[in-house]
Amino acid sequence: MSSIGTGYDLSASTYSPDGRVFQIEYASKAVENSGTAIGIRCKDGVVFAVEKLITSKLHEPKSNRRIFTIDKHIGMAAAGLIADSRKIVTRSRDEAANFRFTLAQPIPVKHLVDRVSGFVHAHTLYSAVRPFGFNVMYGSYGSEGPRLYMIDPSGIALGYFGCAVGKAKQAAKTEIEKLKTQELTCKDAIREVAKIIYTVHDEVKDKEFELELSWVGEVTGGLHQFVPDDVFEDAVQYAKEAIKESDSEDEL
Amino acid sequence: FILYHYSTIPRGKMAVLQPYPDFLSISDWTREPVSTGTSIMAVEYDRGVVIAADSRTTSGAYIVNRVTDKLTQVTDHIFCCRSGSAADTQSFADMVKYNLQLHTIELEEPPLVKTAANMFKSLCYRDRDKRIAGIICAGWDKRNGGQVYSIPLGGMCVRQPFSIGGSGSTYIYGYCDAHFRTGMTKEECIQFAKNALALAISRDGSSGGVIRIACIEESGVERLLFTGNDIPQFSNE
């Protein structure tokens, strides 16, 4: 449901008569047009899967990543305007490194998310800058266990057991809700998220996509990493078989 | 350290800085910076740490305070033992205490001893040429139990099973190396600290007064005071 805020939507420093800041809402639209990204907090870690839409046949695989490592124990997946998300990656990395330097301990992800969401929110206060056009998900496996957070363009940060953003977020959310995330281990969850991405990918509107998978948890000893090739192949195969099954069901 | 004053301004010339002539001199001790020339130590044991200090603050040969508390609390479970310049160490302790209060609220859990020690280290290392501060940061936290961190003059920070500091510590290196054992109980640590400081106090003119001790564990902080005859006496002619 969208409404046009004619006259009150030209800058982030203007309220509409019904108390909305339209620029922030428009920023969310930028996310809705991007490739789907999902994150799941499981029993022993957090997994990310991103549907990276490819527009060119000359695209080099594994370039233009949408998943980033912020600190050894924290990973981040971005959806929306990727150029904006690059800025927040740098900011997050600086915050995490600075925390390590002054306080001699790794930054708890909740604290990092507090700081970064403050930074994102600051860009919604002035007409001189525009709000960021992304949703970013932070996942970590630290001393407090697995944690998953998401920051939206307004600067609100919430904790999740599972979240999805992008083109197919509704469909992806439905799929995630079917899973019992608290009982999954990372190894199970990584196949599930691959399957969800393949399932919700729109073959008609978007032709090619590259899947990115990453995890952080017991299985990696607390480090955030892209999944190893063999795990990746296995997850993709699981996903493709699941689609074939559901396709063949449709035909009947 | 010579006190200077501006001489009467001769006409047409700039004011000239000259030392006080002898007949105008003030007592030496008023010119000396106030120092916690000191004996301090901290010892790790299984459930926490024992920290101890003497109580003498001097300005030259004058004892400014004979009942000083050199064991300064920075959080519920983290203390520091201060030696060197009283001004430098007090201001460092204030700054670390302030920053840790904010840190506790942001992180929603008590700070690590390592964090406090590194904060002290940053302060001591910055402007290391201008500061005189030998600090022992010790305490208890949930992740690593009792810990002792030594931050001597240059601003390094190193964890040790036990640490001694201050001017009086020079006299007890041998005693401490000979008598320290890992796996001591709290009572054994208290006795070890008391004996060591008593020996330091008896040989170091800048250390004296009472022996203050604090035991820091998960359950909290227990403070002890030993005065007069409670301080061990050793034979020394």
Number of contiguous helices of chain A: 6
N-to-C CA distance of chain A: 36 Å
Give the SSE order of chain B as H and E letters: EEHEEEEEEEHHEEEEHHEE
**Uncertain parts of chain A:** none
The number of helical segments of chain B is 5
Portion of residues in beta strands of chain A equals 15-25%
List how many beta strands of chain A DSSP finds. 10
How would you describe what is shown here?
The complex is a heterodimer of chains A (252) and B (237). By secondary structure, chain A is α+β, with helices and mostly antiparallel strands. Chain A has helices at 22-32, 82-103, 109-122, 169-178, 186-200, 229-251; strands at residues 37-42, 45-53, 67-71, 74-80, 134-142, 145-151, 157-159, 162-165, 209-217, 224-226. In chain A, the strands form two sheets. Chain A has a five-stranded antiparallel β-sheet with strand order 8-1-2-9-10. In chain A, helix 2 (82-103) packs across helix 3, helix 4 (169-178) runs antiparallel to helix 5 and helix 5 crosses helix 6. The two termini of chain A are 36 Å apart. Chain B is globular and about 55 Å long. In chain B, the strands form four sheets. In chain B, strands 3, 8, 9, 10, 11 and 12 form a six-stranded antiparallel β-sheet that branches. A five-stranded antiparallel β-sheet of chain B has the order 13-4-5-14-15, covered by helices on one side. A two-stranded antiparallel ribbon of chain B has the order 1-2. With 237 residues, chain B is of the alpha+beta class. The longest helix of chain B has 22 residues, at 86-107. Chain B has five helices and 15 strands. In chain B, strand 10 and strand 11 form a beta hairpin. The model of chain B has no long low-confidence stretch (mean pLDDT 89). Chain B has helices at residues 28-31, 86-107, 113-125, 173-179, 186-203; strands spanning 4-6, 17-19, 35-36, 40-44, 48-53, 57-59, 62-65, 71-75, 78-85, 133-141, 145-151, 158-159, 162-165, 211-217, 220-226. The two termini of chain B are 35 Å apart. In chain B, helix 2 packs across helix 3. Chains A and B meet through helix 3 of A and helix 2 and helix 3 of B.
